[in-house]
Design a protein that fits this description.
With 264 residues, the chain is an alpha/beta fold. It is built from 11 helices and 8 strands. InterPro entries: 6-PGluconate_DH-like_C_sf, NAD(P)-bd_dom_sf, P5C_Rdtase_cat_N, P5CR_dimer, Pyrroline-COOH_reductase.
Length: 264
Amino acid sequence: MKIKIGFIGMGNMGSLLLKQMKLLDNNLIKFCIFDRNQHKLEQNCSGYNVIVCNSELELIQKSHIIFLCVKPNEYDDLLIKIKNFNPNIIVVNITIGYPLKRMIEILGNENSKVVRVMPSTTMVTKKSVIGWTYKNLTPKQIKLFNYLFKYCGNLYELSEKEIDIVSVISGSLPAFIFKFIESASDGSVYCGLNREKSYQIIAKTMISSAQLVLDKIASTTELKNQVTSPNGSTIHGILELEKNNFSFAIMNSIIKTYEKTQKN
């Protein structure tokens, strides 16, 4: 029997998860989808061999695992429907700040199988960082989840405290990085470099620099020192960054984003 994976909500994240999971062996898995917005279904799922459900209830009853890819304010009502019509399903929450404890509380059973996973748009590279945590899954089900995210990236098992922090890094940090690339490109264009060349060179420089960190060649401080000579151009550039509170801005952007997730 095929495992049926259901998605409620076919917006950016729901459709991207489906796209990456469709790369898996279709002999093992069947996908069910539902979205109240018919246009989203047609726009994001055209050409996919999936079961398009006519209601949330139909999808809940057909699925073995269900991903809630909707706004957090819709979670409570959906969990109540799941409790009433398919209490044995594995429920996956992909939003920030909605704890497993709350899911179990609404489902009304301490043995409910619940998961929090924090995907990001970088999944399309198949190298994304994805944090997850869960309660009451069997070893076989844990193995299944690792398989489901095979073409999404690196799945990191975390505590629930850690997952909110990692979700900021893996989910929000890409936007900060894109902003950095955009600004660095503007500076390069101002100095006379072609826009497209600047994007390519900046992005590849970031990849190669990050690889040095991953390979543990040296500490980030040592790596920085290797390219900063006395009174050289690089240290002058770093001085300009620090004049504008670069280090504080990066630290504070992470802290404030995390604090916002705790208020949702």
